[in-house]
Structures are given as structure tokens and as C-alpha cells.
Amino acid sequence: MSRITKDVCGMLAPRRPGALVRFVAPWVWLKRHPIPVKAHFRHSLVLTYAFPERLLEGLLPPGLVLDTHKGFGFLAIAMVQTEALRPAFLPACFGRDFFLIGYRIFARYRTRAGRTLRGLRILRSDTDNRLMAFFGNRLTHYNYRVAAVSLKEECQRLQIEITTVGARSDLHVAADLTSRTAPLPAGSPFADLHEARLFAGPLPFTFDYEPETDSIVMIEGVRTNWKPQPIRVEVFKSTFFDKAPFNQATPVLANAFHVENISYSWQRGRREALLPEKMNDEHAGGKR
Question: What does the pLDDT read at residue 23?
């Protein structure tokens, strides 16, 4: 079966085996990340916060289970200075530079073939470019909003300040670039850097749920020379955690990692219909 035939079949997919086949609007198909993308990361700073499992579990859609450690679930804030971002089939000169901020939950998905994938479930994305937000919201599930971004790199200190509409996800962070191999933040639930690296985003996959077809859409990221370094950070503001459900617990900074000057690409998104309820529950029960 050709890729085009598979995509057309996906537009006519039923929600569950035995359900009536129904047409899926073209804009639903378009949001499955149909175009592979490449970029260069000048800086990628990722902060991972620990929350009680129960607080994050309710934010996951059907098909995904929380990736946990010692009773905690984890949420990553990724701040990425991208350069030459463009469709993978175009040379770098056609690319554009953007700043991207993403809020993601660490999750697992068990495929119909029984393979367990680790990845991130998208909650919100911010960017400093309106064009990126416009096309990003039509070709992905990343939920982009436009934000004002201030980035300063002086004396080996990287300072990032994000301002959003209604202060919904304002963020102000400073990272000491001389502190690579820094110890874990005080209060981190991780015993050592080995444990912490298991929850250093981004992970290989990004997941989201497509309710129109009762499916999981997964996007695989491919990176080269990916060697994140633990780094010391100061977080002055993070208003994303001021609203429910995050304000029901105290977020604990579990780790902070930084990488710079690497190539990154996102493959074309893939959709997989969820298993029937009973089988899916059995798979979820065996996730650990």
C-alpha cells in the first residue's frame, strides 16, 4: 500500500473496530505533521520539573501513560534558539530563525505491535514569530502562541525572558554556561546524573491524541551529537505553574540540561489507531 493510499485510508478511519466509517476533514490530516523538518539548534535549554503523579495523570489523553520515577511525574520546559528551520527537502538557505518554547509531559505509548515508546505529550508551545505560529498550528498539534522573547548571551551567561498574552506562560531564566557538569538542583528526586538524563528532554518521540480518529499521532525526532550537559540555572519567573492543576503542588526543579550547536530534524508524523478498550487497558497495565 502506498503512502498516499494509507493517508487517504486514515482520512476515512473509524474510531473503534466495528464503528461506522466516517470522513475526516482534510485539516485534521494536515495537523499530523505531514512535512519533515530540519533545523540547527544554537541553544537548547531544558528544565524538568517533578510533580506528584496524580496531578499530571489527568492531563494525558487516551492511549498515553505517565512516565514516572519514585512517585513523581515530570514536565519539561524546553527553550530552543533555532536557526535555518525549514522543510527537510530544502537547503539551509531557505530556512528561518525562530525561538521556540515548549511545555511537555513525559509519557509512554505502547504501540499495537507491543513496542513501548518514550516521549513527550504537548501541552503548549510559544514562539516569537507569527508566521511560525500560523503554519505550526495548521501542520502540527503543537498549540503555538505568539510571545515576546528576549535572549541575551553575555559573559557566559544565557538569559531568556518570555512575555505572553495575559501572562499565561511568562518565563524568566538565567543559565550559567560555565557551570557545565553542575550538580543536580537541591531537592531533585533523582539520585544521580544517570537517573536525571533519563528525563532530559527532548525524548525521541512527541505524542498527541487525535479525537476525530481515536488515534495517537507520533513525531520522531532525530538528532546528532546530542550530549546534554547539566547546568546551573536561576528561575525568576514561571507563570505557567500559577494556574490549575499545577498550583495544587509545589513544582520541584529536578534537572536542567543545555546543548548547543547541533543538528535536529523531525520526521513526518505517523498516526496509529488505539486498540479496543479492553486490549488497550491490558497494555497500559503492563507498561512498567
Answer: 63
Convert 140-178 to b/e letters by CB count within 10 Å (16 or more is b).
bbbbbbbbebeeeeeeeebebbbbbeeeebbbbbbbbbe
d(CA 213, CA 234) in angstroms, rounded, equals 42
Q: Are 28 and 213 in contact (CB under 8 A)?
A: yes
Half-sphere exposure of 77 (CA within 13 A, CB side): 24
| pLDDT digits 0-9 by tens, 21-76 | 456 787 788 899 999 999 999 999 999 999 999 999 999 999 999 999 999 999 99
Which residue ranges make up each domain of the chain?
Answer: 3-285
Q: What pLDDT shows up at residue 17?
A: 46
* Low pLDDT (below 50) residues in the chain: 1-21, 278-280, 282-288
pTM for this one?
0.87
CA-wise closest residue to 73 among 53, 100, 97: 53
Neighbouring-strand partners of residue 205: 119, 220
Q: Are 81 and 46 in contact (CB under 8 A)?
A: no
CATH number belonging to domain 3-285: 2.40.400.10
For residue 165, what is the DSSP state? G
